[in-house]
Design a protein that fits this description.
5-stranded parallel beta sheet, 7 helices, 5-stranded antiparallel beta sheet, alpha/beta, 232 residues
C-alpha cells in the first residue's frame, strides 16, 4: 500500500516512519507536516493509506478528510481521545491514541490491509437476504452461510461490509442500509452509521460506547436515544 504520514510533530513523524519501515507491505510516498502538504501529495498521485494526525495548526486532520472528494483508507492518530467519535463518523479504518506501541500500530495496518486487499480483488461480491435464520455472503470467490445467532456486529466501510463472528471476519460488497432492512429488527439494531450490532451481544454501556465481549462499538448521536430505550 502506498501511504503518507501527516503529523505536525517531528518526533511523531519519525516514529511513524520507523514503524512503517518495519512493514514491507507499506511504501511511504510522502511525509507531511501539515494538511496543506498532504493535499498536495494527494492531488499528485493515488494514495492507498493516510496516517493522519487530528490536531494540527491551520487545518485539522478532520477538516482535511472532510474536504477530500476521493478518500484513501485512513488511520487517525491523536493524543486526544475526545476526537474518537468524529473519527468513527468519518469511516476511518482505525484510531490510534498516542502514545501507541508498534504492536497496536501493526494491528491497525493489518486491518487496513484487509480492506485494501478486498477492494483490489473482489469487486463482484455481494450479500443476499435469506428468509431463514442465516444470511448468504459471497466473499473471495466462496459462498458463506452466516447464522444470525453467530453475528456479533457488522461494520461498513464505504461500499464494503464486514461480518464479525466468533469464527472470525467475513467481508463482502454490500450496503449497511440494506442489511438493516433485511436482518430481523428484534435481534439486530443500527447503533451508528457504520455499525449494526446483535442486541444480545451488548453487555455494557460507557458514555457513547457499547461494549461487546471483546469489542467497543461507538454510538452515533442520532442513535443514542434508541439504544438506551432498546438495550439499557
Amino acid at each position: 500500500m502506498k501511504c503518507i504520514i501527516v503529523d505536525d510533530e517531528e518526533l511523531a513523524r519519525e516514529l511513524l516512519r520507523a514503524f512503517c519501515n518495519k512493514i514491507p507491505k507499506l511504501e511511504i510516498v510522502g511525509v507531511c507536516a501539515n494538511a496543506a502538504e498532504a493535499k498536495a501529495v494527494l492531488e499528485k498521485e493515488p494514495i492507498d493509506l493516510m496516517l493522519l494526525d487530528i490536531q494540527m495548526p491551520g487545518m485539522t486532520g478532520i477538516e482535511l478528510l472532510q474536504g477530500l472528494e476521493t478518500k484513501p483508507l485512513v488511520i487517525f492518530s491523536t493524543a486526544y481521545s475526545e476526537f474518537a467519535q468524529q473519527g468513527f463518523e468519518l469511516d476511518v479504518t482505525d484510531y490510534l491514541l498516542k502514545p501507541f506501541s508498534f504492536e497496536r500500530f501493526q494491528k491497525a495496518i493489518d486491518k487496513a490491509q484487509e480492506w485494501y486487499d478486498f477492494s483490489q480483488g473482489n469487486n463482484e461480491e455481494t450479500v443476499t437476504k435469506s428468509d431463514k435464520d442465516y444470511i448468504v455472503v459471497k466473499s473471495e470467490h466462496k459462498v458463506y452461510r452466516i447464522a444470525h445467532k453467530d453475528i456479533n456486529y457488522i461494520q461498513s466501510l464505504r461500499e464494503y461490509v464486514a461480518f464479525y463472528t466468533a469464527q472470525g471476519k467475513t467481508m463482502s460488497l454490500g450496503s449497511l442500509k440494506k442489511l438493516e432492512d433485511d436482518l430481523p429488527s428484534d435481534a439486530f439494531m443500527r447503533v451508528h452509521k457504520s455499525y449494526i450490532i446483535a442486541k444480545d451481544k451488548a453487555n455494557a454501556l460507557e458514555g457513547n460506547i457499547i461494549h461487546l465481549e471483546n469489542e467497543q462499538i461507538p454510538i452515533g448521536p442520532s442513535y443514542k436515544e434508541e439504544v438506551l430505550r432498546e438495550l439499557f
